């Protein structure tokens, strides 16, 4: 009876989500794996492994097997998927013998990268595996009518990549993918703190700073935040106070590249669909859509309405699961 359970997997650089058509999102865990370096055994996956980042002894490393939206370490990704499928089947209270799975891949990924994703999911015992393009999944998850002949513009700002696509009639009309996402923004914050204060902070601290006082390039009331790190001069712990304006400055270069991708995609748009975009606007989704002020900044820069997806973090996973309903039509459009 459960032999053909249907799952949608959002194999993200920062988070891995599993969606079931009956129960919605059943799992949302960081894409982090804790490994024993000597035996290559997987010790923890997800939130538990993320809490170990930067805090482990020499023989244990917490790694992220996906970089820039693609698989960087195949074996570790397969182990992570196995652990995640096990957890998901526990959540669903069923034995997932041979589920049908839809996984999303960045639209700019190569056939080799896609093959790696297919093989990793198949090695977990999936029966049929379909690949769907990430922006299409994000559009479906954000409740856009992707199978109608109208322009749906999606800007999906993920952990490793930002995907910008115009989707009409189930297929991608024009798209651009830049390998800039939440990770790049965290990195910009780490570099800024290092250069300006001679203090080294970790990835988790940088992410915290981005979420609390990170801003898109718009005017805002200045916020401050106390941050602890290691002084690079004397090696001792040090507390510094950061201001939202300097973090905004540190993030602006990466954000301008994202804007450039949005503009390039809109420039490629057929004139018939341009009219739709003026009326319907652009939908932003993905974790990066939660950055303070990004919606206002985009609408200022591209002069069309900009909407925030109802659940930006979950859009891709939800869309991936829902896409099973019209996978045939989507595959015709992508062939």
UniProtKB/TrEMBL annotation:
<dbReference type="InterPro" id="IPR043129">
    <property type="entry name" value="ATPase_NBD"/>
</dbReference>
<feature type="binding site">
    <location>
        <begin position="159"/>
        <end position="161"/>
    </location>
    <ligand>
        <name>ATP</name>
    </ligand>
</feature>
<keyword id="KW-0547">Nucleotide-binding</keyword>
<dbReference type="InterPro" id="IPR056546">
    <property type="entry name" value="MreB_MamK-like"/>
</dbReference>
<feature type="binding site">
    <location>
        <begin position="287"/>
        <end position="290"/>
    </location>
    <ligand>
        <name>ATP</name>
    </ligand>
</feature>
<dbReference type="GO" id="GO:0005524">
    <property type="term" value="F:ATP binding"/>
</dbReference>
<keyword id="KW-0133">Cell shape</keyword>
<feature type="binding site">
    <location>
        <begin position="13"/>
        <end position="15"/>
    </location>
    <ligand>
        <name>ATP</name>
    </ligand>
</feature>
<feature type="binding site">
    <location>
        <begin position="207"/>
        <end position="210"/>
    </location>
    <ligand>
        <name>ATP</name>
    </ligand>
</feature>
<dbReference type="GO" id="GO:0008360">
    <property type="term" value="P:regulation of cell shape"/>
</dbReference>
<protein>
    <recommendedName>
        <fullName>Cell shape-determining protein MreB</fullName>
    </recommendedName>
</protein>
<dbReference type="GO" id="GO:0005737">
    <property type="term" value="C:cytoplasm"/>
</dbReference>
<keyword id="KW-0067">ATP-binding</keyword>
<dbReference type="GO" id="GO:0000902">
    <property type="term" value="P:cell morphogenesis"/>
</dbReference>
<comment type="function">
    <text>Forms membrane-associated dynamic filaments that are essential for cell shape determination. Acts by regulating cell wall synthesis and cell elongation, and thus cell shape. A feedback loop between cell geometry and MreB localization may maintain elongated cell shape by targeting cell wall growth to regions of negative cell wall curvature.</text>
</comment>
<dbReference type="Pfam" id="PF06723">
    <property type="entry name" value="MreB_Mbl"/>
</dbReference>
<comment type="similarity">
    <text>Belongs to the FtsA/MreB family.</text>
</comment>
<dbReference type="InterPro" id="IPR004753">
    <property type="entry name" value="MreB"/>
</dbReference>
<comment type="subunit">
    <text>Forms polymers.</text>
</comment>
<keyword id="KW-0963">Cytoplasm</keyword>
